[in-house]
Amino acid sequence: MTHGEATAEFESRLNDVAASTEGLLDRLLGSAPLPGETARPPRFLEAMRYASLGGGKRLRPFLLIETARLFGVENEGVLRAAAALEMIHCYSLVHDDLPALDNDDLRRGRPTTHKAFDEATAILVGDGLLTYAFDVTADPATHADPGIRVELVLSLARAAGLGGMIGGQVLDLEAERAPEAHKPEAVIKLQAMKTGALLHYAVKAGAILGKADAAAKAALSDYGHALGAAFQVADDILDVESDEAALGKRAGKDADRNKATLVAALGLEAARERRDKLSAAAIAALDSFPQGAKAIVLKEAARFVATRKS
User: Could you tell me the pTM of the whole model?
Assistant: First the structure.
C-alpha cells in the first residue's frame, strides 16, 4: 500500500468511526430511561447531547476500535467501549471550558456548554457524562466476560482520575500560577497525565478487548504513550500557529494564561522536533510485534496527530 493509499484508508476509517460513534452516542443519550433509572430530565438531556454530539474527530474511539481490529475483534461491544471513552473526553472538555478553569466561550466552532445553557448545568453535564461512561463500560452489553469489563473499568478509572487526566488538570492549574519558568520535565509529566492518559487508555482498551498477549500489549503501550505525547505537543504548536477559525476555539490563549506548554518550555522549533520524534517513535513501536504488519491505519494516526491543522 502506497503512502497516499494509507492516508486515504486512515481518513476513511476515521470518518467511519466518527459516524458510528455519533450514532451510538445519539442512541445512548435518548429520552427513554434505562432499567433502574426513574426519568431523564429533558433540558438536561438536551445539554448532554449538545456537549457530546455534532463535533470532534472522535480520535479516541478510533484508536480503541482500530486497536481491537488488529486482533480481529469488531462488534457492538467495542463500539460501546469507544463511546464510553468519548463521553469521558466530552465531559473533560465541558469542565475545562468553565470559568473556574479555562473560561472559554467557544468549542468546536460554537458556544461552550456553559454559554449555551448555564454554568450549573454544564457542571452537571460533565458529572452525568462521567458517570454514564462507567455505566456503559460495566454493562454486559459491552462484553460478556465480567473480567474484561472489570479490567476496562479499572483502566479507565486510572486514566481519567487522580493519577491521570484529573491529576494532570490540577498540575496545569498550579503551573498557571507558578512564578518561575516552566521546566520541560514538569510539562512532559503534566501532559502525559492530562492528555496522554486517555489516548493511551484508548489503545490499551483495544488490546484488552482483543485479548492481546503481553508482547503486543507492551508494544501498543509504547505506541499509545508516544502518540499521546505527540498529540499534546502538536496542540501546543497549533495554539501558536493557527487561528480561531481553524481551531474552532480561541487561539493564543496558552501564552496569555501562562500555560505550561512545551512551546513555552523548549521554544517553537524544539517543540516541533519533539513532536516529529514522538510521532516516529509511535510508528516504530508498531513494528515490534506480529500484528504490527497490519497496523497501517494506526501508523497513519501517528502521522496525523503530528500534521493536523486543528
Answer: 0.94
- Rounded Cα gap, residues 285 and 143, in angstroms: 28
As its CATH architecture, domain 3-304 has: Orthogonal Bundle (1.10)
Average pLDDT over residues 104-109: 90
Burial 260-288 (b: 16+ CB within 10 A, else e): bbbbbbbeeeebbebbbebbebbbbbbee
Among residues of the chain, what percentage have pLDDT more than 70?
95
Give the distance from CA 242 to its chain's centroid.
20
Could you tell me which residue, 62 or 178, shows the higher pLDDT?
A: 62
